From TrEMBL:
<keyword id="KW-1003">Cell membrane</keyword>
<dbReference type="InterPro" id="IPR001123">
    <property type="entry name" value="LeuE-type"/>
</dbReference>
<dbReference type="GO" id="GO:0042970">
    <property type="term" value="F:homoserine transmembrane transporter activity"/>
</dbReference>
<keyword id="KW-0472">Membrane</keyword>
<feature type="transmembrane region" description="Helical">
    <location>
        <begin position="107"/>
        <end position="129"/>
    </location>
</feature>
<keyword id="KW-0812">Transmembrane</keyword>
<feature type="transmembrane region" description="Helical">
    <location>
        <begin position="37"/>
        <end position="61"/>
    </location>
</feature>
<feature type="transmembrane region" description="Helical">
    <location>
        <begin position="149"/>
        <end position="169"/>
    </location>
</feature>
<dbReference type="GO" id="GO:0005886">
    <property type="term" value="C:plasma membrane"/>
</dbReference>
<protein>
    <submittedName>
        <fullName>LysE family translocator</fullName>
    </submittedName>
</protein>
<feature type="transmembrane region" description="Helical">
    <location>
        <begin position="67"/>
        <end position="87"/>
    </location>
</feature>
<feature type="transmembrane region" description="Helical">
    <location>
        <begin position="6"/>
        <end position="25"/>
    </location>
</feature>
<dbReference type="Pfam" id="PF01810">
    <property type="entry name" value="LysE"/>
</dbReference>
<keyword id="KW-1133">Transmembrane helix</keyword>
<comment type="similarity">
    <text>Belongs to the Rht family.</text>
</comment>
Amino acid sequence: MYLEFILTSLIVIATPGTGALYTVVMGLSHGKATSLVAAGGCTLGIVPHMIAAILGLAAVLVTNDTAFQIVKLAGAGYLLYMAISIWRDASLFSPERDRQQRSAVGIIRHAVLINLFNPKLSIFFFALLPQFVTAQDEHAVLRMTEYSLAFMVMTFVVFALYGLFAATARDKVLSRPKLMLWIRKSFAAAFVTLGLKLALAER
């Protein structure tokens, strides 16, 4: 059962989404250390969804259309904000001396918000955990917590690998101005696409 959970989770986590995309952006722009901070922030963004699923609050998003729409649109709006920020920030993929410094707190805040405003993540936990934890299990809450923490660890590892891979290619990117511009605009477009996808998503 545990192996099935790991395999299912890895498939979900490894599928590129907003968190992975943000980690790659930070890796390309700021290097390995910053990509790890971003991966950590995205992992922390899972905590509210994990708690909601364990406490049953995620059921509200499943059954209450208004609540789902509010969270969904907030998330889509934030992704569009990220797209605009990346599009306008010419220093994002620029040499060290020209690049704006970003604090770890700011990076973590953005990463957490990206996941926090994604109602699909709460619904994913709400749908996933009951498949591996039965209501008859007297340690159901503990078991759900264990599975959730395992999911968080896997998320950090996979996102960190994405970020470190991006950071490895950073020097080649920074040496080619036209490529940097193309990548920056491509990432902005990707955030727009993900934002629109979320805005149009159904439960």
